[in-house]
Amino acid sequence: MATVTDSVVTPAAAQGSTAADVESAAPTPQHTPLHRFLADPAPLVFTDPRYSDRYFLYATEDGFNDWGSHTFRVYTSPDLIEWTDGGQILDLHDVPWGHEHAWAPAVCEYKGRFYLYFVCEGQIGVAVADSPYGPFVSTERPLIAKDDFPVYPIDPAVFRDDDGTDWLLWGNGTAWIAPLNDDHVSIDASRAIHWVPGDFREALWIFKRNGVYYASWSENDAREPEYCVKYATAASLAGPWTEHGVLIEQNPAEGIVGTGHHGVIHIPGTDEWILAYHAFDAEYGSGYRREIAFAPLQFHADGTIEPVAPTDDWYRRPLV
């Protein structure tokens, strides 16, 4: 495994795509401790003691024209600053039902196995492994195909409720959630819930704190500086949801724009919650050159969250 240091790690073109797929003359990313273009962060800390001493990050490999990556990798860190490239975990060329546009991976652990949910060709797939480092093996068919629901099926995430139920989240234009069956490679469509929070575009994320459900999502287009995250709270996954406005938005004074498609880490045994998000530089960046950063969430006494201001003061939080 190669350690991600202050120098740029191997360009994405050398990791399974041709140079023609990658935007030419890409500069060195300046706003991320990972020192490379990545997007759509799905961060987590596993409770499995074999892996609980480090943060895991699954993300879209970025820097490609038309979001054209076809591989997924895993990154780990002891403190959110020093990162190790854990290697490739899935290549879409090994997926039986599709081979293009590897987007928005998310992983959960269940009964000792690890499940990778991902986008491929505008459908949601699932692959299984015995380790969070893979290799992950895809199922023969998509978990959610294009015509299964009246929504563009992208941006999967997983929320585990207090009763142990894992809910798959997805959607574009409309937010959808449905419980995963015990096999974790299928859903119970009869219990699916959908709604449109705010001006929902994509990237639904849900967590629960002090008995309150928090749903957050991205609005506007990922290529726009105005891409942002908003959030709502509810006493039930079925709602009703109370919207609270912006969780994070652009900071033009710092040259950081397009702050969206996020994930939230909970540090087990604490009331600490950390936001992971991507953004792009106002000058050299674009919707295809995005960078991941982290920031702590600060909760008010009423449970609302102080809006996060993106900066280049990278957040360090050692797990051990």
Automatic annotation (TrEMBL):
Record site feature (Important for catalytic activity, responsible for pKa modulation of the active site Glu and correct orientation of both the proton donor and substrate), residues: 155
Task: Note whether tRNA processing occurs among the keywords.
Answer: no
Any idea which UniProt keywords this protein has? Answer: Carbohydrate metabolism, Glycosidase, Hydrolase, Polysaccharide degradation, Xylan degradation
* GO biological process, alphabetically ordered: xylan catabolic process
Q: Using the record for this protein, list the coiled-coil segments as residue ranges, or answer none.
A: none
UniProt xrefs under Pfam families = Glyco_hydro_43
Location of the region described as Disordered in the Swiss-Prot/TrEMBL record: 1-29
Q: What is this protein called?
A: Glycosyl hydrolase
Check the UniProt entry and state the signal peptide residues, or none: none
Q: Which InterPro entries match?
A: Glyco_hydro_43, Glyco_hydro_beta-prop_sf, Glycosyl_Hydrlase_43_Enz
Q: Which Gene3D superfamilies match?
A: Glycosyl hydrolase domain, family 43 (2.115.10.20)
User: Which protein family is named in the record?
Assistant: Belongs to the glycosyl hydrolase 43 family.
Q: Per its UniProt entry, which superkingdom is the organism in?
A: Bacteria
Acetylation recorded as keyword:
no
GO MF terms listed in the record are:
hydrolase activity, hydrolyzing O-glycosyl compounds
